[in-house]
Amino acid sequence: MKWIEQYPKNVKPSYEQLIEFLPERIRELFFLFDNIMASSYKVYNNYPRFDKTSGWIYGYCRNYRVELLFVTIGDNSFKALGVTVIDEDSLNDLLERCKEKYEDGYEERYALLTAAKKANQINRSKARMAREKEELKELTENIDLSKFNKCKWAEKVSRNKLVKLYQDEAKGLLDEHLLDEIGYTFYARCKQARDTREGLERGEIICHHCNAVHKAVSYTGLIACPCGYYYTYREYRRSCNANNVPGGRATEIFNAFTDNWLLCKTTSEKMLLIDGLVHECHVSAMTGEKGRSVCMNLMEGTLSQIKDMLEMLAGSK
Question: If we measure between CA atoms, which residue out of 113, 124, 126, 247 comes closest to residue 191?
């Protein structure tokens, strides 16, 4: 089946499906091409779009979609810059054209467009901040500002206390009180995060002073809690994100700890669960994946400080 027939406009193929479509030999050439684009020119296959003639095509670009070239997919080949790649010779021809295209002012175009985009973003941000300042001033002129958007997020775990817990365990002197303190700190943060994130997805916020649940009628509208505190959905959500409240791609990890902590009956069960969560933090911190590391959601300190601690703990086991 032809590429455009297998993946029409309403069926966007994943990267894995793209790779599977290519015959094995062409797949190897494509991987080589893909790696050279990234290593030599810092452009990446991250701008897929549909073309009515060629089907799904793949732009190689950087931020702001500053494209160096795009690739089309054939039944037994791929094509870019007028070169159809079917073997090593044709791949070398394509790479030579890529080099010529790159040297024909790509970095200059990228620098100019990036500077213009950044300047535009700065101006838009300034205008937005000025507008929001006026909106908040008008919104809060008749309320007690000391009770406006005063969120109390669950504490993060102290690095020093976590180190002490592991050091004591290594000596066979596990401090059960410290174990519970750390476990319940993790639990409180993960539990609050789940309740908060699920509520936000429903357009709801939870008052941090009386636990009342409020449905937001708009993104910026004032929410008055009977206990005397006030919120807006926008500022509540921003506060949540600014505090690194657990969520995102690691939600399953946080939820698993929340579900299992109260089921632990013995110190060994508690320590095993905490150690599993710390291990996930270590993996996240060391992989270098794009996005905020799991450890930043749960532990005090900078990413560098937490990484150093996790490496030390891993080495002491």
Answer: 247
Rounded to an integer, what distance in angstroms lies between the CA atom of residue 25 and that of residue 29?
7
Q: How far is CA 117 from CA 43, 69, 102, 126, 128, in A?
A: 18, 20, 21, 14, 16
Burial class from Cβ neighbours inside 10 Å (0-12, 13-18, 19+) for residue 229 reads buried
Cα–Cα distance for residue pair 66/113, rounded to 1 Å? 8
Which residues are CB-contacts of 31 (< 8 A; sequence separation ≥ 6)?
Answer: 19
Each residue of 190-217: pLDDT tens digit? Answer: 999 999 999 999 999 999 999 999 999 8
Q: Which of 24, 76, 70, 68 is nearest to 49 (CA)?
A: 70
Residues 169-198: pLDDT tens digits? 999 999 999 999 999 999 999 999 999 999
Tokens of 7: 């993946």
Tens of pLDDT, residue by residue over 137-154, are 998 888 999 999 999 999
